[in-house]
Each structure stands twice: as C-alpha cells, then as structure tokens.
Amino acid sequence: MKRKRDRFKARKRYFSPALLLIGLILCFFVFPGNVFAGLILDAELRLQYEDNVVGLLSDQQKGSVSTGAGMTGGTPMQASSMGGMGSGKSNYTGSSSGSSQSPGDFSATLYAEAGGYQDVGRNAEVFAKGFASHTSYDTYTDLDSNIGGVSTGISVFLSDIISTRMSILGKIKRFDDSQRNSTAYAGNLSVKEKLTPSFWLREFGQYEKNSADTSVFSYTGTTIGIGVGYALTKKTLGTLGYSYLIQQYDEPSSAEMKTHTAYLGAEQTIGKNWAVSGEYDLQLSKENVTGTSATNNIFSLALRYSY
Q1: In sequence order, what are the residues at sequence separation of 6 or more whose Cβ sits closer than 8 angstroms to the Cβ of residue 219?
Q2: What whole-number distance in Å separates Cα of residue 306 and Cα of residue 28?
Q3: Could you give phi then psi for residue 287, rounded to 5 degrees?
Q4: In 10 A of CB 106, how many CB atoms?
Q5: pLDDT by residue (tens digit) across 103-124?
Q6: How far is CA 292 from each of CA 5, 54, 82, rounded to the nearest angstrom?
Q7: Parallel, antiparallel, or unpaired: how do β-strands 274-287 and 256-269 relate?
Q8: 24 and which of 77, 105, 130, 225 could share a cystine (Cβ 3.0–4.6 Å)?
C-alpha cells in the first residue's frame, strides 16, 4: 500500500503543472477569437552547467522566455541552519577554498507558455497566459522540478520610447525532494526605454511569497534589476544585466540570503520563429545565519520557439 501511495504522489507531483498548462492551451484554442486578439505561444529548451550548485536558488534560475532575468569560496552548511543552501542530498553550499572538488552539475530545462492578449484603448493591452517547466539535474536529482502556473497583467505604452508592464502570477512548484514543494504568488513591474532603434534599457522588480511544505524552504523574496540590450545586426542581439535578490526565510527566524547576479548573453535569430542563445551568469550569494558565501558560474545554451 505504501508503494502505491508513493507512486500516486509522484504522478501527482509531476503531472499537475503539465495538466494545468494543457487545459489552458485547450481553452485558448477552443475560444481564441472570443477572448483574445492575439495568441501567445512560446517554448524553450535550455541546457546549463553550474560549477557550484546552490539548491535554494534552484527555482530562481533564468531560462524562461517570460522573465529574461536569470556565489567567493564558501563552506559546507547543514540543512538545519538554512534548509540546505546546496543540494538536498549533500546539504552543500558550494566549494570552499580548501575543497578539492567543486559541486558542479548539468541540467536541462523545458519551458512552455500559452495564452493571449487583447488591446485596451490605443496604448495598452492586457494579457493572460499559463506556463509550465520541467528541470532535470544529472547529479542533484533532488532538485528536479516541475513548475506550473498562470499569469495576467497589462502593458502600457507611455510613448514611442517608454513602456511599462505590470503582472501578477500564481504557481505550483513540485520537486523530487518533496520538502521543497510549494505554492507561490508574485507581482512584477518593469519599465523599458527604447533609446534608439537598436538599443534599450529595462528596469524590473518582483515580490514573491513562497509557501513550502517545510518551513525552512518558505520565504519572501524581493528582486530588483536592470538589463541592457543592443542589436548588433538585424538577427543578432547582445544583452547584459544585473539583479539583486533578498530571500527572507520563515525558519530559522531572521534567516536571510542575498544574491547578486550579473549576466552576459547573445541571441541569434535563425528563422521566422526560432532563435538560439548563449549566456554566462555569475552568482554571488551569502546567508546571514552562518555567514556562508558561495560563487556559482553558470553557462547555458538555449533553443527558443516564439509564435
């Protein structure tokens, strides 16, 4: 009986986000003209290598087509002190200065979103979409995840140069390590300035409340950042940016982790709907309970489809 219950829980964990997205896609195709003026349909496959996996950031990584946003030697830290900053199996934060082996790992993420948008007046549009992702690690399989949810918001074009976007979202997170399972709600705000036909700036912020099955993985997160894009050619885009994340955890009391991330990337359009990209991210994280810090170098390649 226990084995049957475990299999049932596993199926529920892996399929609930996927079923949510499939249901939304069917609704959009059954009622497209009645609800939306345009269709959103995007997908991405991202292959990634991290030389120092930080488990508490496994649900914060870049790689989704909807966000576009993505630690110097540390020491081991036990799960009791911050829920395991690294992988759940080893409770490891990353390589220390005296360590002979770096806890690096490869991962693959498949992401998809579907929805639609509708014009509101001359200078605004509202949108709604569902999204789902699956991430698999080669070694730290306890961080394998399925994340699905829905988002809605509004884009306002203030002028030919400045536009802004506001959105709210809810999502379900399911991990191979069930202690990390959670529901989350978030609000996003971004402002974009198109200074020339080939050069733009974007400032963004996010507030997230993540409620996990285990309190050491429950947190309130606040992110702010800035990104820059420059079109090198008609089909080649270069990007760079920076973000700052503060996560305040329910347990232990007053536990907090701060993460600085800088990234540099390039994207090449290879057809009407396809693009490939490469990116390097440098993450610097530090938590305040033990003073542990970690540096993570992240290299990724992605193939994206956009309808």
Answers
A1: 210, 247, 248, 249, 250
A2: 16
A3: -110, 155
A4: 14
A5: 899 999 999 999 999 999 889 9
A6: 38, 12, 10
A7: antiparallel
A8: 130
